[in-house]
Give the backbone structure.
Amino acid sequence: DIPLTQSPSSLSASVGDRVTITCRTSQSISNYLNWYQQKPGKVPKLLIYSVSSLQTGVPPRFSGSGSGTDFTLTITSLQPEDFATYYCQQSYSNPLFGQGTRVEIK
Amino acid sequence: QVQLVESGGGLVKPGGSLRLSCAASGFSFSDYYMSWVRQAPGKGLEWVSYISSSGSTIKYADSVKGRFTISRDNAKNSLYLQMNNLRAEDTAVYYCARPQYSSGWTYEYWGQGTLVTVSS
């Protein structure tokens, strides 16, 4: 298994802020890295797949980058509907998830 | 449209068993790998198991290996998870998930989940 280390575990931000969440693995997973958003009481939603490809319908303020072992999810201008928990997930081997990052309102 | 509907959750005592089902519709079920993912109350997502389209390839998370069995019936468009020797730490919402493409683990579609509570 290739575990993921996601950071921070939580952050407080204001509407309009730029937010960055990091995900690291202990060995290369090529571009097999996805990001999900989950709002309280809701089902996870695929945001970004293969590091940087935006899922259909996801606003362009979301972006992903990275390669190998270090990956980043960026929200360029945080909107009220973006307050949620975000998970990275590797789809290279057994599909493990990161621990999650809770984005809260400052 | 793709629909995944889980059922079979409930309250069970430690050491007990439960069988979850996931009814799929809106796509060619027999073409897709399928997975179970769970989420304990207030915790993160945990992959549990996956099964290939034909059922020939199966993997489990270490936390459930030897206790859970995944299976599918392509004729019935259904996915199953037999859970035996349940423990308190198995308490979670269990989601059925389908990947973007026929194989792989980029989960584009999720069911609404079924809650399993293991408690005496």
